[in-house]
Every structure is written in structure tokens, then in C-alpha cells.
Write a structure and sequence with these properties.
Number of helices: 7
CATH architecture of the largest domain: Orthogonal Bundle
CATH superfamily of the largest domain: Winged helix-like DNA-binding domain superfamily/Winged helix DNA-binding domain
Pfam family, one: MarR
Shape: elongated
Structural class: alpha+beta
InterPro entries: ArsR-like_HTH, HTH_MarR-typ, WH-like_DNA-bd_sf, WH_DNA-bd_sf
Protein name: HTH marR-type domain-containing protein
Number of domains: 2
Distance between the termini: 36 Å
Strand content: 5-15%
CATH class of the largest domain: Mainly Alpha
Number of strands: 5
Helix content: 55-70%
Keywords: DNA-binding, Transcription, Transcription regulation
GO molecular function: DNA binding; DNA-binding transcription factor activity
CATH topology of the largest domain: Arc Repressor Mutant, subunit A
Largest sheet: 3 strands, antiparallel
Oligomer: single chain
Radius of gyration: 23 Å
């Protein structure tokens, strides 16, 4: 019997190799996911939209009358960043800006008919994606969601710990 193969040191080395392989897989998944989400997509309106644009449309549709400050908070971006995004969406005829009631400085945001079409088509794409997920995972879909979210949350806590202890590495 080879003592090295069954030693705790060997088991730790193998576990460490699996840990680093897991990190590689997570990075590969993140790259694929971000590449997929960075592509402009067609939501049934004349213009193709980036992820942040369609999600801005989604947020306005879900919170009609939201103001620039509140919308910036939803996305954790600055007011100038969200204002530039709104200008682009307004010029494309997707979003309408209106003055606040009794406050001409406040800008309230609403979707146009075209914006509502994009909003609806975005929700339909999400629904179709979920249907494919359920077909792929079948009866295990609920278990997969629960266990994956649990493990992702644990891994997120690990990453927070690593970030705080970064100088040790």
C-alpha cells in the first residue's frame, strides 16, 4: 500500500486542487454569463438594448413615477450615470420624463407604449429561460435552487472574508 496516497497531506493537496479547479469553473461561468449579458438583445422594439438598459426599463415599469435619485439607488449608480441612461432611452422613445407634481425640478419617469412592449418582451424572455431551466433540471429544480443558493451564499461569505484578509495572501 502506498502510504502517500492515503495520507492526510495527500488528501489536503487533492482538496486544494479541487478548490482551485472550482475557482476556475466559477470564473468560466462568470465570463460566459457576462459575455451573454453584455450583448445587445432584441426585445421586440426597433432598438437592441444592453442589459442595463432593459433592466432600467424593467425598474421604471415596476415603479412608474420613480424619480432619477430613486432609480440611481435601485442600481447603486450615480445620478449622472442614470441620467445619461435615461436620456438615451428617452431619445429612443422608450421612456418619458415628466416634471414632478408641484416640483418642476423633480423628474419622474414613465414608460412609453414602446417601453411597455420592451418590458413585456423582457419578462417573456425571463419566463422562457425559467422554462428551459425547469426542463433541464426536472424534478430536481427545486432542490437545485435551494442548495445552489445556499452554497452561493456561503461562498459569498467566504469571498467577503478573503477580501478582508487580502493582505495575508
Amino acid at each position: 500500500m502506498n502510504v502517500y496516497l492515503s495520507s492526510p497531506m495527500h488528501e489536503n493537496h487533492e482538496r486544494e486542487k479541487r478548490f482551485h479547479r472550482m475557482n476556475d469553473v466559477i470564473m468560466d461561468i462568470a465570463k460566459i454569463y457576462m459575455r451573454w449579458h453584455d450583448e445587445k438583445q432584441d426585445f421586440g422594439v426597433e432598438d437592441t438594448l444592453r442589459r442595463e438598459e432593459i433592466h432600467t426599463i424593467q425598474a421604471i415599469g415596476d415603479n412608474e413615477g420613480i424619480n432619477i435619485t430613486e432609480l440611481a439607488g435601485v442600481f447603486s449608480v450615480t445620478k449622472p450615470t442614470i441620467s445619461a441612461r435615461i436620456r438615451k432611452l428617452a431619445s429612443a422613445g422608450l421612456v418619458e420624463k415628466r416634471s414632478g407634481f408641484g416640483n418642476n425640478k423633480e423628474v419622474l419617469l414613465f414608460l412609453t407604449e414602446k417601453g411597455w412592449a420592451a418590458h413585456t418582451n423582457h419578462e417573456e424572455k425571463h419566463h422562457k429561460l425559467f422554462e428551459v431551466f425547469e426542463q433541464h433540471f426536472g424534478d430536481d429544480a427545486e432542490y437545485f435552487l435551494d442548495s445552489f443558493m445556499h452554497d452561493l451564499n456561503r461562498f459569498s461569505l467566504f469571498l467577503s472574508d478573503v477580501k478582508q484578509r487580502r493582505e495575508e495572501f
